[in-house]
Amino acid sequence: MKKTEISLTLALVPIVLLVLLLSFNVSVFGDDALGGSNQFILLMGAAIAAIVGFVKKISYESMLQRVTENLKSVTGAILILLFVGALAGAWLISGIIPAMIYYGLQILHPGIFLPACIVICAIISLATGSSWTTSATVGIALIGIGKALEIPVGMVAGAVISGAYFGDKLSPLSDTTNLAPAMAGGELFSHIRYMTYTTFPSILVTLVVFSVLSFTQTSQGTADTAVLMAAIEEKFTINLWLFLVPLTVIFLIVKKSAPLVALLIGTLLAAVFALLFQRNLLMELTETNQLTLNDAYRALLNAITRDTQIETSNSLLYDLFSSGGMQGMLGTIWLIICAMVFGGVMDAIGALSKISNALLGWAKSTFQLFASTVASCLTINLTASDQYLSIVIPGKMFSKAYKDRNLAPENLSRTLEDSGTVTSVLIPWNTCGAYQSGVLGVGVGEYFVYAVFNWLSPIMTLIFAAFRIKIKALKEPNS
Length: 479
Hints:
By secondary structure, this protein is mainly alpha-helical. The chain has helices at 8-29, 37-55, 60-73, 75-93, 96-105, 113-128, 131-148, 153-170, 175-184, 188-215, 226-235, 244-254, 259-277, 279-286, 293-305, 330-348, 351-362, 366-383, 387-404, 409-421, 431-440, 444-447, 452-466; strands at residues 308-309, 322-323.
């Protein structure tokens, strides 16, 4: 493809206009922007980039060819997302996710209430892949318990959010965890392994801070979680055998099995465990008195492919015990496809190459490149007010710059999560900040200082970059 030189100003025009359009769109639609309007705006951004391309005499065919190549590059990521949705549905109906929540609640004790909040929310968010669901369920319950213990709500909310975003960030069920490597050109499990280097130090520091804060609080009451645990036991058979499934998936990940293989095995094993331990639940879902092969098949396939809602006697568990299955991942897949269309057109007109060269010209060192990535993610979070966009836009802008600097895509995907995913909740007008403060009933200003994990994460990634700790280089072509 013949490259056409364009000016840096012209290359930035589609980016700037896209950010402005997305900012307006999010202000209009709020939390619902991901339902389709953001995706259309990304296509509008692609159209603006195409107009710039036509001005520079770049053919429609060459732009379409680059879009096709871009879409081909994320085929694996799209398949993984579908299997992640299948895994989430299977793990819910088999009782694996409820078991994680059940045993997590047992560690709650007034003397270690704040660090326990972090651990519980981390476990639940890892199991569900959603910081929003974690906060809207167990988070609300923990806020109520914290009030009963007369612990400042800002502290409790900070602990809840820190734990929820730790789990969200590392969970293979999380859409942002899948989105970041898709944008950077990496692979899911490699991305998760590489994220642990900065994520675990951040959460350990957070736990130390909240352990110290616990000594400053005098708790008089008791943390009563019996009601939640009883509601779980009403619907699910809870036992430690259920943990064989996630342990198997973890083993496969450690052994570097193909992601699709690990996710498929985790889904199929969960379906078997549902038949072994949750027969009553399967009968309830199929509205039958005797479980036949056809009924069991229908219940399992519905959970894997479509939305499943398991109602309990406690309304707090309603959102926690729901799953969209493979169908629930279509919104994120839609976002990736539209982002790839925008990125493909930008690449075809030479805009990404121009921006990349400008970034490399300014960022003389690896640290400066990481710092500009962090700054871009924060800027998108502040302006476009959406964590997904803080991953998508910088991801496409910086991917070539990292490759040109011989840096593996894991460096970029990790930085996108460290500075895009987790900081969104610290901004009051961001969809995440507005959601969390609304759900928990605690203002962003009240929990900002106590959301230690969230504001520490971008600092940690910059420390690693400054001292060149775990900065992975691209493999040589013949290695």
